[in-house]
Design a protein that fits this description.
By secondary structure, the protein is of the alpha/beta class. It has helices at 3-17, 43-54, 68-78, 94-104, 119-127, 139-155, and strands at residues 24-26, 31-32, 34-39, 59-65, 82-86, 109-114, 132-135, 157-158. The longest helix has 17 residues, at 139-155.
Length: 159
Amino acid sequence: MYPESNMARRRMATRLTQLPVTSVILQGSPMRTVRVLLVEDNPFLSESLKSILGQDSAFEVAGEVRDGIAAVSLARRLSPDLVLMDMSLPGIGGIAAARLIKDERPDTRVVLLADDDDHDYHQAAMAGGASLCLPKEGIVGELLRALRNMLLDERGFQI
């Protein structure tokens, strides 16, 4: 409708996601970081996601694997606060892995990354126990803000 205002909003959103966040504080607890298990079979995207998370000191990549079976195993050992996982993985897919992780660790938040912004993918992800499902397209500008909002809403984190 008003292309200039949409462009200005996008620029503002991009600037907001680039603001440094020094910590995430669990209400009533000392300052701590959110420990993230990264599960992505594409090495290029995995490096990009690590780079994005590395821009924000509130997040620490505690582990990284390339398939769903390894994700379940490593989540068991690391007890991450958050699992950031591709939906399409070798072995077992992201939705099945999310279900297994949530069965064993109900407090762990799982965010699934979908190749497509299809409503059916999102419904399946949420039914599988995901806290959030994000399309991979455009993830660079939105990831940190989406994770902060999810944690604030679901875990009582203050940012």
